[in-house]
Amino acid sequence: MEGNGIVLQEGEQYEPCWLRYEKVEGYYQNLSLFSNIVVKGASPVFHSAVEELSRGISSILGIQPKVVKSVEKSGFILLGTIDDEEVKHRFSSLREFRQMNKEGYTIQSISFNGELSIYLVGKTDKGVLYAVFHFLRLLQMKKDIDHLSIFENPKNQLRMINHWDNMDGSIERGYAGRSIFFKDYQFIKNGNRIKDYARLLSSVGINGVVINNVNVHEAETKLITEEFLSDVAKIADIFRAYGIQTFLSINYASPIQIGGLSTADPLDSSVQQWWKSTVERIYQHIPDFGGFLVKADSEFRPGPFTYNRNHAEGANMLAKALQPFGGIVIWRCFVYNCQQDWRDRSTDRAKAAYDHFKPLDGQFHNNVVLQIKNGPMDFQVREPVSPLFGAMPKTNQMMEFQITQEYTGQQKHLCYLIPQWKEVLEFDTYAKGKGSQVKKVVDGSLYDYQYSGIAAVSNIGDDPNWTGHTLAQANLYGYGRLAWNPDLSAEEITNEWVLLTFGDDPEVVEQVSQMLLDSWRIYENYTAPLGVGWMVNPGHHYGPNVDGYEYSPWGTYHYADRYGIGVDRTVRTGTGFTAQYFPENAEMYESIESCPDELLLFFHHVPYTHRLKSGETVIQHIYNTHFEGVEQAKQLRERWKRLKGKIDEKRYRDVLERLNIQVEHAKEWRDVINTYFYRKSGIGDKYNRTIYK
Amino acid sequence: MEGNGIVLQEGEQYEPCWLRYEKVEGYYQNLSLFSNIVVKGASPVFHSAVEELSRGISSILGIQPKVVKSVEKSGFILLGTIDDEEVKHRFSSLREFRQMNKEGYTIQSISFNGELSIYLVGKTDKGVLYAVFHFLRLLQMKKDIDHLSIFENPKNQLRMINHWDNMDGSIERGYAGRSIFFKDYQFIKNGNRIKDYARLLSSVGINGVVINNVNVHEAETKLITEEFLSDVAKIADIFRAYGIQTFLSINYASPIQIGGLSTADPLDSSVQQWWKSTVERIYQHIPDFGGFLVKADSEFRPGPFTYNRNHAEGANMLAKALQPFGGIVIWRCFVYNCQQDWRDRSTDRAKAAYDHFKPLDGQFHNNVVLQIKNGPMDFQVREPVSPLFGAMPKTNQMMEFQITQEYTGQQKHLCYLIPQWKEVLEFDTYAKGKGSQVKKVVDGSLYDYQYSGIAAVSNIGDDPNWTGHTLAQANLYGYGRLAWNPDLSAEEITNEWVLLTFGDDPEVVEQVSQMLLDSWRIYENYTAPLGVGWMVNPGHHYGPNVDGYEYSPWGTYHYADRYGIGVDRTVRTGTGFTAQYFPENAEMYESIESCPDELLLFFHHVPYTHRLKSGETVIQHIYNTHFEGVEQAKQLRERWKRLKGKIDEKRYRDVLERLNIQVEHAKEWRDVINTYFYRKSGIGDKYNRTIYK
Fold this sequence. Notes:
20 helices
């Protein structure tokens, strides 16, 4: 075990990730202010803030600070909220101070007679905790702290992590070990790791966690019963101290399965009453319970359709039960026909979410939020943005990303997703004319939503490095930072993470940053080309299989024949999906001339000889990117090898091992894809590189 | 539960299969002989014979016979061996009587003063039991018994069933429920069903059973230890009473895994000693233990290769340990490189068994038998015969068939395999010139093998009807009959089974027989065409997936591109596999003109426009057979529907349900295969039937 930030618990060996708090030597000269932490408040969150700050200071600077209620003279770090008189007196004249939202904070350096003091001030105690993490980040990155005047408000209200953890301890689409919450259908008793996880999440501003899988099986259905609520409450206690609300995924058929009712019809009064009582019971255990995440009428999960009710009726019933307590319903829009006939060319899975939900705009209660996956399909390496974003002015919407790399290399391949998410968030929907970016939809500003934000599916498990691939920690870090502030650039976020995780050796910073920033495009290069997607082995979704989903019921096809490939989703000759976008985007995608190359096969069926904007034909593009992708994967490995000796041996070897796998599997991707298309098209590579016949 | 043959045990509900012993009314006039069973011998097998005969007579004729040691006057059924003085006196002048082999028997009707007596005489008690089953078969089929003079010797010495049962209760490639031997890593205590299974096997002449999977996992490795040997012995007791020897599959790495040794090297004396002691211990528990079945150095199983020893060295070491007790080693030849690179066109899995074993001819001990799968690949719906048959004059060989329908519809589809096996057994290897059929290799007559015969992988489980698909019972029945006498025609066997299982209504006999006899060709029609094979979903092997194994490491490819399809296995331009056959067959397969249509793509890569002997092109043949195959599957269902009311409702519905599934899944096969090849070839159906684009 390298690093010295996290105190390891007995028997547990895991990495501190970006909370390493490595010793910073010889940089900060004026150390006296670190000796006194003045705490102007008391609460579990305050306690966490003080504990974290003490831990950080002692680890980074070797000073054990005193924690006091007040001091006589300057030279201290003060933690307090805006309610504190001294704080109010000092800062209330500042405009930004008055504009702090309930999770906002400020960090201010005040010099008096040459004595520096730092004020870490939140609107509430949560802001104080965020300020502490921010301040410690600055220390670790060796930033000048003499002239700080920082104001931060999170841009998104809901900044959530969804766990797809099952009570048997498995994690659906998990690639980093087993659950840290559950084992053998029980809660894991030792909460140490959960606390350290809460610290990691809180340090990047996450404020909500759903602890169980959206696919709620028999065991997890009982999480809302007395059998397990006290266990859930213990986890909620841990998270609460880090400003994180706990949510549960629920089974829509709970009234039948655990309630003894014969129906789960949302308009049935006994069902309504059952949920009302259930919610009351939950809030008796967890007074600040967040609410429910619901996957209904999707992939064989039960839902209101069984009773001829629509999604609004289904969600509103739960919303009413939660409303008195301030809880919310997060209702997933991942609803489509997963028993499609591959022979049926008229049904288009991409259209499903919009078709299901758009007509219901205005019918959802204001404590319901629709959670929409970034793309219309399912977390492919490349998809267009879901046309549902911005299409429902009167319905709260939030984004769902996937940190766990289901379709993007399963944490064996390096695939840093921040650049992808940035593209999604910056995408202009034109919902209210130019400048209606997705980020403005999900931060609630475009339509003034009551609830909105971003959720993402966790990539962590009980592996010692949390994420399987050590560099995949960057996706969790970056997700949190982006959820806090979507305006941050991928480069800024990357730079922070590398500095915090590997230190400030310039060669390390340069190489690791470049590896991360290049990796998504590289993965795209050697996998599914031009936005077509789904060329993976069915079920586990790892490795190339061009026809793997081609004759399946999942609505996921590429229609490659001997002449061409791609899905015609145009209005003129195809499924009409393009019409779901606002006109500017609809026109862009509808026209083969204006459709971006990287999404060409998502929207159009073209001959292999079709010329891209790059000037290459589609078939030559496929060959080029697949040959190049492998070379780029090798370059990733070469970059990493340059860092030998500059990174602790354990992490160096762990990453190298994954990069070796990546190179080998990239070759498999290259050769399968190239051979498949060579066999089908009969067209050779114009550069005569090796394509197996 | 219909039928009245098998006494059902408490809580257990399962069918009697072909041992129904339905009441035969008004056919047999002279019933007095059935009142007296004269038993001239005593042994567990004799006991079984008497019990079965009594049960059969009372059920078929409603008479409860007396069992006596002798009678004064004629009019009886006598059970005895050739050692009996009266028997010897009466029959020893007959040439056939003297030619009985140790499992042979005779059935003789003797009329004296108008009083009929029947002699059921075996060379040993096993023959007596076989004679009883034969006689009961005749009664059930309403055969004339007044003038019987039947002599039977089994043609094959080893007539075995291999179970791929695991101790957790699962069955590898099982499609009829869980194991009847094992549950939760223990032996199932209640032996009733095993006894009834022994009756079924014995009734068709099976004389050996391997009770555990050839893939021997951790748990089953311990079957040869004191922990489990007394359980194995109990099963052996049950089987022994029905003339069946018990065998075990062993783990070649046992000396390491349970013996505490550091090696399993067959030339290491401590290893040899360990096996010697182990075998001694087994025989203390089971004095007539059959021996070991070994899957070594195949599909990740351990074997002698680890120690740079060859298969002969590996097998002989075990053979030496077994020899003193009369046990044998059955060594599987299913050895190939399962980590092949699909890009590598020079390696040909079809060649592997011959390449591995042929050079070792003469090096195996005479109590080793090589068990060779019928084809060079793996139980596909259509393969050529393995060229290894007949290629090793100095090495015992036996056949391995697969009754369980891994690649032939998994007991959801009707696929009666007797016609396939008949083709294999009748195939002329030309090993010693014309007339060197496979059946003469495996019955030991061609080269005078010390041990030889046929084994097959069981299709039974704990389903109430034993085999999932009721009509799949016919495959087990037919296998036994064919192993006893490969000269029986498919029609004879089929007729027997239908009469025994469904009675003698002429419509039932005609329709069911025709369904069975047509079914293999029908399944072939709508699945993989022209011998190419492997167009199935990987792993579970059910349903169409043309490219499912195309880019895999398993050596199973079809090489379809936009111009053509097939594997070139010729000497002239391909892998050279054809040279493994004796010249007459090698020439037949080498030449595209003489290669039979149904194996064309196994041996040759041809354009889709290649004209078959039928006059159709390959592509049109693919379309024709796939359209026809579905129509034929529908006809199977129509035939069955005509039998409503003529077959008990339970079995009628069970079969109909499977036939409905078959029709639906046949359509899926048809459409996937046709679309795949249409997309690839660009050639339409000349009859303009629907092919989805």
